[in-house]
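Fig. S4 source data, part A: sequence.
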Amino acid sequence: MYPPIGATAFLIFSMPELPSAAPRNAVGGQVCGVVGGAAALGAFGLLHRQGAVTGEMSGARVGAIAVALLLATALMLAPRVLHPPAGATALMISLGIVARPAEWLTFLGAVVLICAMAIVVNRLVGITYPLWSPPLPRLRARFESAHDDAGGCHVGQAPELRRHRAVPVGAHPGGRVLGARGLVGVYGAQLHSLLGARYLGPEGESATAVEIPSPPPSSWTTSS
C-alpha cells in the first residue's frame, strides 16, 4: 500500500477544479516526488539499506529525508506541476518504506490509473475535469472609457462604460484593464461632471477642479 495514493485520490475527486488536481500536476508531481526520494537515497548511500521504520534513524537517513523533500519541491516548482501529495511520496521513499524501483513504477502506474478514472467519473457527473493540463486562470471583465484613447478620463465628461468580453488580467488588447484606482477615476469623473468637484484620475493624481458656471443675471427671477 502507498499512503500518498489516498491523498492524490482525495484531492482529485473532492477538489477537481484545483490546478494541483489536474492529471498533469498529479502525474508530474508524483514523478518529481519519486525522483527526489530516489536521488536522496542514492546521495546518502541508502538505496539498499533497511528502512528507518524498522531500523534505526541514522544521521544519513535524516539527511536523505531533508534532501528528498527539498528536491521534490524544487522539481515541482520548475515546470509548475505542484501536487502536495508528492511531498509525502518523497518522504515515503526516503524513509525506505518503498525502496525498490519496481515499487516506484507500480506507484506511478496507480497514479495514472486514478487520473484516468477521474476523467471518466467527473465528466459523467457533469464536472469539468481537464484531460491533461489544468484550465486557464480565471478571467476578469475589462472596462474601458469610450472617449479616451490614452486610457484616462476627460475632465467634465462622464465616460461611457462598456462591458467587453473577458480578457486575462493584465492584458491590454485595444484597451486597458482598470484596477481599483482606475475605477476610482472613472466614477470620480462621473461625479465631477455633475458636481464640478475634484476627483482622482486613473493613476491616483488629482485633476484640476472645474467650476460650474452660474446662470446669467437676465435669467434670474425675483418675487414681488
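Fig. S4 source data, part B ends here. The longest strand covers residues 143-145.
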